[in-house]
């Protein structure tokens, strides 16, 4: 991948703030004419630097009032178990983040739910019913202090 220059960084910063910005507004903000700006954006999309565009929703306004982080430890680390867990994570929309982690647990999940009872149902009838989880530890989010999708440039 080519190194990012100051124009690329400015484009990425502007699109992180407003991914819906028009090409003309973007070009004006980063001090480029429209055609070179468009070529740079297209290159950043094609090389995967810009992975996707999306809308960021307020979870509470769509009825998802509960968030939790769940530490998961699997029964074993066979490929079959890992594949089964990965497939479960991929198909469950309530899991909004999943990371394989170091330490005594194997995964850290971020879950959204309507309420604590909905989270309990997801945990009991979803995660634990897989039969491949040794233990889970749930940490409810009381208040979100910072939430950002911005990456430092």
From TrEMBL:
<keyword id="KW-0805">Transcription regulation</keyword>
<dbReference type="GO" id="GO:0043200">
    <property type="term" value="P:response to amino acid"/>
</dbReference>
<dbReference type="InterPro" id="IPR036388">
    <property type="entry name" value="WH-like_DNA-bd_sf"/>
</dbReference>
<protein>
    <submittedName>
        <fullName>AsnC family transcriptional regulator</fullName>
    </submittedName>
</protein>
<dbReference type="InterPro" id="IPR000485">
    <property type="entry name" value="AsnC-type_HTH_dom"/>
</dbReference>
<dbReference type="InterPro" id="IPR011991">
    <property type="entry name" value="ArsR-like_HTH"/>
</dbReference>
<dbReference type="GO" id="GO:0005829">
    <property type="term" value="C:cytosol"/>
</dbReference>
<dbReference type="Pfam" id="PF01037">
    <property type="entry name" value="AsnC_trans_reg"/>
</dbReference>
<dbReference type="InterPro" id="IPR019887">
    <property type="entry name" value="Tscrpt_reg_AsnC/Lrp_C"/>
</dbReference>
<dbReference type="InterPro" id="IPR019885">
    <property type="entry name" value="Tscrpt_reg_HTH_AsnC-type_CS"/>
</dbReference>
<dbReference type="GO" id="GO:0043565">
    <property type="term" value="F:sequence-specific DNA binding"/>
</dbReference>
<keyword id="KW-0238">DNA-binding</keyword>
<dbReference type="InterPro" id="IPR019888">
    <property type="entry name" value="Tscrpt_reg_AsnC-like"/>
</dbReference>
<dbReference type="GO" id="GO:0006355">
    <property type="term" value="P:regulation of DNA-templated transcription"/>
</dbReference>
<dbReference type="InterPro" id="IPR011008">
    <property type="entry name" value="Dimeric_a/b-barrel"/>
</dbReference>
<feature type="domain" description="HTH asnC-type">
    <location>
        <begin position="1"/>
        <end position="65"/>
    </location>
</feature>
<keyword id="KW-0804">Transcription</keyword>
<dbReference type="InterPro" id="IPR036390">
    <property type="entry name" value="WH_DNA-bd_sf"/>
</dbReference>
<dbReference type="Pfam" id="PF13412">
    <property type="entry name" value="HTH_24"/>
</dbReference>
